[in-house]
Structures are given as C-alpha cells and as structure tokens.
Amino acid sequence: MRKQVVDLDRFVRELKKARKKSQAPVITLIANRGATPFEILASTLLSLRTKDAVTDAAARRLLAVANTPEQIAALPAQKIEKLIYPVGFYPTKAKRLIEISRILLERHDGRVPDEMEALLALPGVGRKTANLVLIEGFGRDGICVDTHVHRISNRTGIVTTRTPEETEFALRKTLPKKYWKPYNELLVSYGQTICVPVSPFCSRCPVEAECPKQDVTRSR
DNA sequence: AAAACGGGGGC
DNA sequence: GCCCCAGTTTT
C-alpha cells in the first residue's frame, strides 16, 4: 500500500489562508513590534505548558514593568508572581526569570547569548525555547519543534519520529528551507483550532484527503 | 521512561 | 469532575 503524502506547498498555503481568522500567537505578536531577544526569551519561558491567550496577557503585564535582565533581577519574586499569574508553574517561572537574569548579568554581559549551547545551559531553557530565541530573536535559520509541530508532522506523515528532537532534524531534511520560518507558527494556530490532539476537526482540514491520520482514532 | 511542577478551560 | 495544555528537569 502506497503511503499518502501531504503536499507541503499546498499545506502551507492553505494554512496561511486559514490563519487570517485565528489570533496570532504571543511570540508573533511580540516579534511584530520588534521584540528583543530577552523579551522573546522571557515570554517563551512563560509559555511553557500554558495556553497562549493566558501567556500573552501575562507577558504583556510583565514586560510593561520590566523587560531587561537588570529590571527583572531587581524585582522581588513575589512581585513577578503577581504579574505573571495565572500562567502554569508561575512560582517556578518567577524564580527562574530572576535566576536567568542574574546569570545573564554575571556571565553574559547582560545579554542573551546567541549560541545554542549557551542557551541550553540556562536553567529552564530547553531545545524548544533555545530555538525560538535563535530564530525569532537572532534571525537564525532553524525549526522550533513544540508539541503541535511534533504531533502534526507525524499525524500527517510528513515525518515519522518518536521525539521532538528527532522531528526537528527530520524536518530539516524534509522541509524546503523557505518553509522553516512559517512552518512553526502556522502549525501552532492550526494545532489549536483544527488539528487538535484528540478528536481533530478533519472535516475542516485543508489536507484531510491526503492525510494518513496516524494517531487519530476519532475525528470530527 | 516517567513523574512532577500549577492552574485554567473544554467537555 | 476529569483530562489536556507554545516543556523542562529530576527521579
């Protein structure tokens, strides 16, 4: 049996059309007004395991008060907790924002490092966060794999991988470079509205006909 | 490999 | 009421 293959050109084109209606993700909103690498790092840290509407409001409240390592490091943890509530893990994230700010001041001249290794060395920064900072903050080429990108890339059969990191490297080989930047943010909004984790709305999906629906047992 | 961190929202 | 979420760290 021949494996169905989703047409990447058409997939991305249709997703762009579909995105017009949905709300832009927080990172895009911030990037659109010229976010600094530190702002991208801080808001990405807030976003972990938290829905983007909640993250967006919290990031705006925080960055309006403090948007540099100096300013964050000078704030009491309790004050940051209050600003970012109710993002998930807010007490941990408040401490981490301060900790990272201090490390940046002590070890990196108060700037966000622009290398993967140095970013991963920061507490609470994993591959997803580091990639987003490098791509959105420093304009690097790369693919940022989160749960949406991982799930949808496998569900559609664009790649076949077990971990997000494997997905990142598989996409680097499979995906034409011109799609690297739009791919992540397109899939995130698509993954929040149509291709949701459980019981996705396949009837509203532009590539429904070609999709092997790898992990889908029920669809709507 | 799996639990844990935390609270809001969907169903 | 139960399950899931723009992950990462620790066991």
Quick overview of this protein structure:
With 220 residues, the chain is mainly α. The protein is built from 12 helices and no strands. Helix 1 packs across helix 12, helix 6 (77-84) crosses helix 7 and helix 10 crosses helix 11.
Q: How would you describe the overall organization of this protein?
A:
The structure is a single chain. By secondary structure, this protein is mostly helical. The chain has two domains: 8-22 and 143-210, Orthogonal Bundle (Endonuclease Iii, domain 2); 26-138, Hypothetical protein, domain 2 (Endonuclease III, domain 1, Orthogonal Bundle), CATH 1.10.340.30. The chain has twelve helices and no strands. It has helices spanning 8-19, 26-32, 37-47, 52-65, 69-73, 77-84, 90-107, 116-120, 127-138, 147-155, 164-174, 180-193. Helix 3 (37-47) runs antiparallel to helix 9 and helix 6 (77-84) crosses helix 7 (90-107). It is elongated, with a radius of gyration of 18 Å. The protein starts with 7 loop residues before the first helix and ends in a 27-residue tail after the last helix. The mean pLDDT is 87. The chain binds a DNA duplex (11 and 11 nucleotides) through residues 25-27, 44, 47-52, 54-55, 85-92, 123-129, 132, 144, 146-149, 164, 184-185, 188, 191-192, 197-198. InterPro entries: DNA_glycosylase, Endonuclease-III-like_CS2, HhH-GPD_domain, HhH_base_excis_C, HhH_motif, Nth. Its EC number is 4.2.99.18. Residues 46-193 form the HhH-GPD domain. GO terms for molecular function: 4 iron, 4 sulfur cluster binding; class I DNA-(apurinic or apyrimidinic site) endonuclease activity; DNA binding; metal ion binding; oxidized pyrimidine nucleobase lesion DNA N-glycosylase activity. It holds the Pfam family HHH.
